[in-house]
Amino acid sequence: MRNLDNLSNFIQLVEVSPRDGLQNEKSLVPIATKVDLINCLSAAGFRHIEVGSFVSPKRVPHMADTEAVFAAIDKKPGVTYSCLVPNEQGMQRAIGCGVKTVAVFISASEGFSKANLNCTIAESLRRIDPVMTLAKQHAIAVRGYVSCVLGCPFDGAVAPAQVSAVAGELAAMGCYEISLGDTIGVGYPEQVKSMLAVVTEKIAVQKLAIHCHDTFGRAVDNILAAMELGVGVIDASVAGIGGCPYAKSATGNVATEKVLAMLAAKGLAHGVDVAKAAAAGQFIASALGRVVNP
Length: 294
Ligand code: HMG
Ligand code: MG
Prior knowledge:
Layout lengths: L11 E4 L1 H5 L9 H13 L4 E6 L12 H7 L7 E5 L3 H9 L4 E7 L2 H8 L3 H17 L3 E7 L12 H14 L3 E6 L6 H11 L8 E5 L6 H10 L4 E4 L19 H11 L7 H14 L7
Helix pairs in contact: 2-3, 2-11, 6-7, 7-8, 8-9
């Protein structure tokens, strides 16, 4: 078992607030606000920012403007600006606006797959096939998400072997990184470790990221547990905004500010300007009429 002494002392943050943070808001957020948020995040030093998603606008109206947002943001050299795509139609939209990194997403549980993607896990994997073919043709990098790795709002417990099986499929299809999502924030640190022990039998830990929602306040402890097993990529969202419209119990993502505080306490580098990240959090929280309380 690895501990923090063995960890590479640089942790990469993937800032998901413009997508996961805003997809579930009650009212639509103006394009200009999204663009300002993303530009604040790149100015704060985030090297991977999830800009939006090319999903059905009927299912997730908040992301219907992703083309316009992507076109309007500053594209800083060295920053990855990624977008979620669920199928070939989404991939064609991504190609149409020059996106260079996309993320595909599947569930480790059948219940959430049906609710989120309106299909079985097997069918969701089939839909990713043409996405990967187009990705190769257009030199687009593909990240993969697996949702419900520690529990499903419909099916309950999810076996680590099932997480490993679907994550392994994504890796075999060519995803450069697999982000393991505790979509509803139900996991505990020991569970994170048991799940990762099984997943890393199939996928090198260097290819894994952790994506925790903070429903019960355990996200930072769960992230630390993943880091202790060597995971060096953390998804987070400034001001802790976020949630999934198809998992009612998915509250906010872990707040980036909390993760940065934990990394500082451990003496780990991350390349982000903490004050500017906090300012980005303040900006979006006030745009949404919230108080930041990370
Ligand atoms: P479907 O419901 O199975 O239906 O869609 P379809 O494929 O037959 O298409 C139905 C309609 O959607 C058609 O339009 C299509 O053209 C359109 P109509 O003929 O009715 O006018 N359509 C699209 N339009 C634009 N872009 C597209 C697209 N695809 C179809 N790409 C689909 C399947 C997956 C598209 C749909 O169910 C959907 O969009 N679901 C939303 C999924 C979503 O965005 N969930 C939230 C993000 S995932 C998440 O938050 C978890 C994560 O954070 C990790 C974690 O926390 O665990 C990543
Ligand atoms: Mg999420």
